[in-house]
Amino acid sequence: MKAETLNPAELRAAGYKALAAALGPLGMARFFLQFEHGHGDYTRERREHLGDKSVATVTARIRGRKKAPA
Question: Are 16 and 6 in contact (CB under 8 A)?
Fold first, then answer.
């Protein structure tokens, strides 16, 4: 079986099988618990918080906050 010839569902099934063989059912479950899918719309939220500011502008703002006394 060549991974490059598998469709996404077949690749996912092969990956699950390999994880189960390598880690066992408990190890596989623990591995999956390390990941979360997240939620929300990152792009929309980023635009709401940052607007159209450039990377240089955001970087300068962060550096300014780091220098400010607590």
Answer: no
Length reported for the chain: 70
Structure-derived torsion over alpha carbons of residues 63, 66, 69, 70, reported in degrees to the nearest 10: 140
d(CA 27, CA 33): 10
3 state DSSP class of 39: coil
In this predicted structure, what is the pLDDT of residue 61? Answer: 87
Cα torsion angle, 2, 18, 38, 9, sign: positive
- Are residues 6 and 17 in contact, defined by beta-carbon separation less than 8 angstroms? no
Per-residue model confidence as pLDDT tens digits over 37-55? 778 888 888 888 878 888 8
Q: Which tokens is 2 given?
A: 């060549």
Which residues are within 8 A (CB) of 28 and not within 5 positions of it... i.e. 6 or more apart?
Answer: 16, 19, 20
